[in-house]
Every structure is written in C-alpha cells, then in structure tokens.
Amino acid sequence: MKKQNIVIIDYDAGNIQSVKYAFERLGITPIVSKDKEVIRNADKVIFPGVGEASWAMNSLKENDLIDLIPDLKQPVLGICLGMQLMCESTEEGNTKALGIFPVSVKRFSNEQKVPHMGWNQLDDLKGGLLNGIKPSEFTYFVHSYYVPLIEETIASCDYIVPFSAALQKDNFYACQFHPEKSGDVGVKILKNFINL
Amino acid sequence: MDVKDGRTVKGVNFVDLRDAGDAVELAAYYAEQGADELVFLDITATHEKRKTLVELVQKVARELNIPFTVGGGISTPEDVGVLLNAGADKVSINSAAVRNPQLISDLAKRFGSQCVVLAVDAKCVDGNWEVFLNGGRLSTGIDLFEWILKAEQLGAGEILFTSMNHDGTKNGFANETLAKLSEMVNIPVIASGGAGNMEHFADTFIEGKADAALAASVFHFKEIEVPELKKYLKTKNIPVRI
User: Fold this and answer.
1) Residues of A with catalytic annotation?
2) Does the predicted interface ipTM exceed a cut of 0.95?
3) Domains in chain A and their CATH numbers?
4) What is the pLDDT of residues A162-180, one digit of tens each?
5) 3-class SS of residue B201
C-alpha cells in the first residue's frame, strides 16, 4: 500500500472513527483534522458525514471549511452525507450545499421503508474508484435522501428509484454507501482510492 | 452478541447465562463468515459497572468492516457520543427511552435517526403485548404497538424487537407480531428471539416481514453457520449478500 498523508475532515459530524479504523486496517494512519492548512497539504482528503444536512453545513461554516473543500486539488472522497453535501443543495432542511456536483439531493418517497438501510448491489459501474468491483457485489447503505442519476454518476443503485451510488467529477469522488462498512468490497474501493 | 465483562453470553429466557467466548475474536469471525451486521448488547449494563464496555467497543470496531451497533445502559446523548467515538455506527436504546421518550428525539436530532435503534423486549401477557425492561425483569404496562408507533414518530431509525416468549426457545421468531409491527411502521424492523433452525430465518423474512433477523446462540454454538444460512435463504428467493 502506498505510504501517504490522508486527512479525514473533522467537522463534528459523526462516524469518523469507523473511517479512521478502516484506513488503519490498510496500514495507513490518517490524520483527523479541521485545520485548513493540514487539509490543503494532504495527499488525499476524506469528507465523511453522518447526521442531518443543515446541521452539518452549519458545522462546516463554523469551522470555516465551506470555501476550502470545493477548492481542493488532490483526490477528495465524500462518504454518505459527505457526498450529499458536495451537491448543489439538499431537500433535507432545505439546505444549500457545496455545489461541486450540479444536482439537488432529494428525499425518498415513502413507498418503501425509509431510510434505505442495508446491503445493496451496485450497477452501471465506471472504473476508477470502482475498479474491479462487479455489478453483483454488495455495499452498505444508510440514507433517507438520494442523489438522482447524473452525468457524473459512476455507479447506480436501485431502491424505490434508481439513484447515484457513486459520483466523480475531476478530483472529486463520492459514494453514498459506506466503504468503511462494506466488508471486502469496501476494502477494495478504499484501496482504489489510495492508489488513485 | 450479548456481552458481560468482555465475554459474549447468551441466556435462555435471559437467565442462566452461558459463556460463548471472547467478544473481539467472535466479532472478527462473524465478519469473515459474512454476517451483515453485528449487534453488541451489554446486557448487564443497566445494573452493573460498564467501564469496560467502551474499551471493548473500540477493540471490536478496529477489527470490524461491517456495521456495528452497541447497546446497553445508554441513557444520555453523552453516552452515545462516547460509543460513536469508540467506533460504534449505531446505538440501541431500550429502558432509558421508555423512562424518557424524549431521549429518542434528542439522539435523532444530534446524531441522526440512522444511528438510533430502538430495542424493545416485549412479552405477550393474556393476549396483549407488553413492554418489559431490564432484560425482561420489569413489567411496564405499556402496549408494544403504541410504544413502537411513538418511537417512530420521535425519530427512531430502526426497531429491534425481541419477543420474551420466544427468546431462547429455538421454536422460531414471533412472526405474527413482527408482521404487524413491520406493516405498521415505515422503518426497518429487526426480528430477535427464537431462532433455532434455518427455516425459522426464512419464515421471519416471509411471514414475519422482517427487514433483518438477529440471532446469537445458534451462531455462537455453531448450530447454524452464517454462510450455510445465507445459501439456504437464497434458495428461498430471499435477497441476501453472499
């Protein structure tokens, strides 16, 4: 595994330990930080997130990180709420988000149980971050809001409606599922990100 | 996994605890075997010291690459913060939520509904399902269905339902009640209590309309192996991750 400086953005929006442990299992000790210089100088940046969108955006604002993230030049991986906050806006708390991906995040209709919680299969996989992942393989999802399919979609998933399971635009990567909690498939995806 | 002093235990009808092994070792074993989620319940936490729990959660979380839920003795948002920081993905709350239902909404607001699992132990007494506390030791007089509806409204993200009538019996899950619960709420319902053979799992997904099934002793004592169970469920057309 490539030795590198991976920084997990710490903005008090949960679940940072799980992500940290996942990299540690791969022999990398990530730095957890909210310091702009530390984040800017990272080889790679992880933008995690669990919780409510407007609360999380507020937290980014309080930590003065709103202008920094869209401006990053190294590979950035948004996970779950992190991915949703990389979009234009979200219906959750009618929140304006970071605007990296030109799409609005929508809430699932109540046709089936919400949140979409559990293991689901990926489809329409487009290499890069998802190199070596087969359409039959499962990743772990927990979310009530979804990103519709767009040009930047690099994997789709289907629950109530087809939605974006992963996105990529330039150096920005994002996944709705939790690679850190997706067993061996998740490990492969994190390794792909490290090797980008 | 029911945990006491860092070891996994499983009671028959919640008494006469038997030791089923080391928690960290078992957690890693189950992840490798293909378990989809691990639930850790510190069953004695409400009335014994629980200092060791956080350290144990941390040790397990370091090894585990599947979702990890931790419960037992959680009564404040601070407790939850500590466990999430130790590497838990979700917490399950039980007695404290019954005593103070607002805890559910406080946790949902602070950490998100996705990490709030409401665990409920219930017993069917004279045809009525009643909520019990402290591992089945304390009757509350609260109706199961009313409580679950309220918990959903307050922001619970999942329901972990254990039937005290079925737990430890190995005669199958409480499917009729599960189906009623599962159709009543719009959040996932996890079936718990009563697993004895592989058919019981298929039954709880089909008849009980459960979104997930939880078991302990049949796995701890290797009466059922996870890979074999998943293969079996697949032959029954139940979607599973293999």
Assistant:
1) 80, 178, 180
2) no
3) 6-194 (3.40.50.880)
4) 999 999 999 999 999 999 9
5) helix
